[in-house]
Amino acid sequence: MNLELFFQIFGKLDDERQASKVTYSLFDILFTSICAVLKAGLTEVNKT
After folding, report:
1. Is the CB of residue 10 less than 8 Å from the CB of residue 27?
2. Rounded distance, CA 11 to CA 8, Å?
3. In terms of C-beta density within 10 A (0-12 exposed, 13-18 middle, 19 or more buried), how is residue 39 classed?
4. How far apart are CA 6 and CA 16, in angstroms?
């Protein structure tokens, strides 16, 4: 996955969370979530 392309697509999203309660950027959360989903999918493929 090209990180620059990922940022171009998802970096445009507005983060509507309260700024004082934000620890991680929306981009970081999305990137980590997608990586976790892809890893879980690869794990399932390797089990079969």
Report:
1. yes
2. 5
3. exposed
4. 20
Taking residues 20-47, what's their average pLDDT? 85
| Alpha carbon 11 to chain centroid, angstroms | 10
Residue for token pair 């399932």: 44
- For the cut 90, the answer to whether the pLDDT of residue 7 exceeds it is no
Q: How far are the Cα atoms of 10, 26, 29, 32, 35 from residue 21, in angstroms, in the given order? A: 21, 12, 14, 19, 24
Instruction: Give the Å distances, CA to CA, from 46 to 16, 32, 33, 43.
Output: 38, 21, 20, 5
